[in-house]
Amino acid sequence: MSNSIIVMGIGDDGRQGLPSAYIERIEASELLVGGERQLQFFDSYAGEKLTIGAGLALSALAERLAAEERTVVVLASGDPLFYGIGGYLAGKLPGRVEVYPALSSLQLAFARIGDSWHDAAIVSLHGRPIQGLAQRIDGRRKVALLTDERNHPGEIARYLLEFGMTEYELFVGEHLGGDQERTGWYSLNDAAALADDYFAPLNVVVLRVRAGRGAAGAAGGAVQTDSTTAGAAIASGIATDSVGTATSASTAAAKAGRTTAWPLGIDDAEFAQRKPDKGLITKREVRVLSLAALGLKPDSIVWDIGTCTGSVAIEAARLCRDGAVYAIEKNEADLANAIANSRKFRTDITFVHGKAPEGLEAFPDPDAVFIGGSGGELRELLALCCSRLRPGGTIVLNAATIENLAASTKAFAEEGFVTDITLAQLSRSKPILDMTRFEGLNPVYIIAARRRESDAGEREKELDAGSGRKSGGIGNDSSASSGASSTGSASNDDSRSRKEANE
pTM for this structure? Predict the structure, then answer.
């Protein structure tokens, strides 16, 4: 390949681990590019060296290499096409990149374990927040994690314990293939107790379900231990006396050591709810219809406004494993239950304590918005949601009264949205002696709103002219994950903020 750029994988063992053909290509090149540590393996290199990371962004590197006429070798860790620079440069410099791979860190890790890795779920936490990891891996029997100095093995173990994912044991491989190689298995408790600098910065983590602790499969499932497994509210210290206990079904599963594979449409009784006012929850049947109307995709960004118990947010997070869910609730006791429920169902959701629309400015632009309670600010709230909704997105609002139905459809029309309305009139069977009767649930209007096609095109142009998806101040940092962030005061006496359609 004329004027080609070789992207070459290199392991922790450096030059000595490279085949002779690789060494020959390096010695024949005129420019050697790599990280500082990688370049140190080639002290006697005769050509020019260029260090990546010394104020040199990848985009600037690609521009420089595009104009480069000399023979170039770019060094990269392991397999350059596995979460590496190889794919990036190949995309920026089509037809010019040759890839010479080395063994990836995951190949070496699974070789040390003596286990296959084609069936492992692989997640990179390198340079990425840990937020959302819980729902991405829940139910997976085998998970490989690429780490960094922030998302190190101890931090990962503490995170998993927070969500009660105690079925996993943790393998850590450090400096794999190098002189300082160290490997070992750890329980989550042991890894969590170690100092942050106990493990070398160069490491890879493999999670595997411990023998006798079966996972629930790809559909996802939480191992139930006891009622406190549900309890992020206990950890957060918010209204812990309002948190409900696990139901008899999940408690029985816990005692038997079984896992619970939660289906779409989780039973209402499984959610912790505020006492004595149980019932402030989007009922299962209405919840499933509303989720279907939202048109969620695996990577959707979802808002849940007036989250209450968090039932819609939790089910959305389980559907959008590669996306993110942001929920706001003004009632402190309800928020505590929502956080507890999110831990029980292993969904890492960003919760905010506030009264919408205040607080929504910190959220990234959504692909889907669910509104279960408005706090009396319906018109202002709908205007904001419509303006922030991504092209092709959907807003779903549940209303129990014809007045709110009329007000919302009028507001959507004024914002250039079309609506599709479903009236859900549902009944549940109830035993009466040796017979069965039906008890009606409150009728609910499920209003799904989407931008008119002509207006959607204009919105797309606006985003293309700007920076694309708006990034908020929450969710880009793992410290905000599943926490309650105070953005406003609670107003407990305003019943309109609750799930009005389900009281």
Answer: 0.80
Q: Which residues, including other chains, have CB under 8 Å from residue 321's CB and lie 6 or more apart?
A: 132, 135, 136, 298
Q: Give the helix/strand (H/E) hosting 316.
A: helix 311-319
Report the distance separating Cα 38 and Cα 332, nearest Å. 52
Where residue 214 falls among pLDDT bands split at 50, 70, 90?
A: low
In the block, residue with structure tokens 């989007």: 282
Instruction: List all residues 6 or more positions away from 192 whose beta carbon is below 8 Å from its beta carbon.
Output: 154, 157, 158, 161
CA 401, 402, 407, 411 torsion-angle sign: positive
SS (H, E, C) 357-409: CCCHHHCCCCCEEEECCCCCCHHHHHHHHHHHCCCCCEEEEEECCHHHHHHHH
Instruction: Look at the alpha carbons of 234, 240, 242, 246 in this order and tell me if their dihedral is positive or negative.
Output: positive
Find the angle CA(235)-CA(236)-CA(238) to the nearest 5 degrees. 120
* Token pair of 303 as six digits: 């808002």
pLDDT band at residue 54 using 50, 70 and 90 as cut-offs: low
**pLDDT mean over 106-130:** 96
Question: DSSP secondary-structure letter at 323?
Answer: S
d(CA 363, CA 327): 9
Q: Return the number of other C-beta atoms located less than 10 Å from residue 451's C-beta.
A: 24
For range 358-379, the mean pLDDT? 89
Counting Cα atoms < 13 Å in the Cβ hemisphere of 281 gives 26
Residues 307, 370 contacting (CB under 8 angstroms) = no
The token pair at 438 is 């039906």
Residue 455 has pLDDT above 90, yes or no: no
Structure-block tokens of residue 196:
């942050």
**Cross-strand partners of 420:** 448
Average pLDDT, integer, range 421-434: 95
- Judged against a pLDDT cut of 80, whether residue 375 lies above it is answered with no
Contact 270, 245 (CB under 8 A): no
Dihedral sign computed on CA atoms, order 490, 494, 497, 501: positive
